[in-house]
Model the fold of this input.
Amino acid sequence: NAGVTQTPKFRILKIGQSMTLQCTQDMNHNYMYWYRQDPGMGLKLIYYSVGAGITDKGEVPNGYNVSRSTTEDFPLRLELAAPSQTSVYFCASSPRVGQGHQPQHFGDGTRLSIL
Amino acid sequence: RKEVEQDPGPFNVPEGATVAFNCTYSNSASQSFFWYRQDCRKEPKLLMSVYSSGNEDGRFTAQLNRASQYISLLIRDSKLSDSATYLCVVNNRGGGFKTIFGAGTRLFVKA
Done:
């Protein structure tokens, strides 16, 4: 099992450019998440999805979009990159077991710099 | 008030020491609780879930106090390899799904 795979690992963008951060998981997890982590800070939830075709905003969704067309994939789109979006982005997934919350499995992260 | 609060530390302890971290949460409806470990420039990894009755995994003990709304992590016989940031995580339900990560407590274990 590869677990949660994120690509690319590193990227430098110019202000105003767009890009898509890819995330895929092979554990058949229903729940998927995108977080950002700024230096010395905690993780902040950008968007999450409880299943294919269903997405919802987290704490800091502005400037981002997501889609969930399959169980495996949950790409994060930046349309107009801004310096404030310089951060490390983590994708995570978790199974759904009854009504309980299960721990999340994280990808290695994507380090994004906007210059 | 932050939804999940942790002492940022850093905690500097010698090898073999016992160290404890606390985490408080504001939502009394919080349902599940976890401790994660995050090494420098790495992804968070689950350390242990926290159960109402308290639970232990080797040198690590986690406890939950719902009345006072805090969870704790105790590390006994600290190893150099325990040096990391420890994240408190709380899952809420009601008005939507919500997972809140604390900002983390940094631990340095020295020889």
In short: The CA atoms of residues 60 and 75 of chain B lie 5 Å apart.
